[in-house]
Amino acid sequence: MACFDRVSPALREILLKLYRAEKPSEVDHHLYEFGSVEYHVQSSAADPQHNYLSISTPLLSQGALLSNGLSSYTMKMVKQVCSDAVEIVEPAKEGYQLTLKLNFAKVPSGKDSEKVITQISSVQAVILSSQLKEMLRNVNSQDTPQGMNKPIKLVYHPREPFYIIRQPQKITAVFPIRFREHSDVIIATGFFQELMDVGSSEKWAKAPPCTWSPIPPPELRGEPLEDLSTNGGFVSFDISSCHVEGKKLDKTVWSLLNFYAYVKKHVKCTRGFIQRRMQKRLESLVEVLHEEKLEENGNVQKVKVHAESRYGGKLIRLSKPKNFKRRCRDFTRKIMQIRFRIKIHGFQHFRRRWLTIPKFSSPLGYTKLE
């Protein structure tokens, strides 16, 4: 999959077209991303300065939820990103977690307009990352609501979900790994084993511990079988308080969101490297064979020259292909003329009448022996 970007390029393009449009028009556009994210953009020709953006995204927040399904921390993060040109509509439209009212009249002109619209296009990423941030920043909290130790499934791509499991003094992120090609599974397995070896070294002692297992971890017992059916195993990261301090929190969140993309990019690059090495090896072998063939041809020419100088004779020169074919046709024609019988007109009628052997019938009967 592509790297999970903070800004939705498709949504950004639509909003820029609405902002730069010379004539107001009616717009009712639905946009889907990653199979689980939906945007609904609405614009009215009667009121072109006010547009509405509704967002539907997977919900993973814990704790107190508002009526629209988003936590107070998530709403706070959304308000910090959005400018004065954006107003949160409460309640949100049916089927969506968040509805924003965009006032293009308050959007500054020039290059600043693109900056503001880019910030608006990153609202979904803010919602998704803020939910993870809310869980990770409370990693040492002892006030865990009942039932929150169960795995929380995050689906921002239907084929690539991962789980967040809250445990005492740490949070575990589990990634089920799937590949279509068996060769990709082999490359990824070697990569995960190397990742565990490097992570256990003293140089990377501050990084989150990484473990890989071909079977699901015990924390995922009870989850749907289709989510646990993998061919690449399960990769787990244990995140503690030292990994979410200050600016590390944002880096940790985006590293988790882009882990699938990082693994698949590594597998793709490794496969391409292997193919290039095999191609170079094949070219070198072909070059060696070509050189040996040239050497053999050179030795044959030397033998012919040596024979001519020794016996003073000349090599027999074969006839040209056209002459050779003509001689073959003449020779074949002569053989056919010799082989075929001489045909006499009316001889077949004479043969049938006078040279036919008469048939005789025996008066004696025959008894079939058993």
Report on this structure.
With 370 residues, the protein is α+β, with helices and mostly antiparallel strands. Among the domains are: 9-133, Yope Regulator, Chain: A; 141-257, Yope Regulator, Chain: A (2-Layer Sandwich). The chain has ten helices and ten strands. It has helices at 9-20, 72-81, 111-121, 123-137, 182-199, 225-228, 248-257, 259-311, 321-339, 347-354, and strands spanning 27-33, 37-43, 50-56, 86-89, 98-103, 152-154, 162-167, 170-176, 210-213, 234-239. Strands 1-2-3-5-4 form a five-stranded antiparallel sheet, covered by helices on one side. A hairpin with a 2-residue loop joins strand 7 and strand 8 (170-176). The radius of gyration is 41 Å and the shape is extended. It starts with 8 loop residues before the first helix and ends in a 16-residue tail after the last helix. The model is unreliable at 61-67, 311-319 and 339-345 (pLDDT under 50).
Defining key terms:
5-stranded antiparallel β-sheet; Yope Regulator, Chain: A; extended; 370 residues; alpha+beta
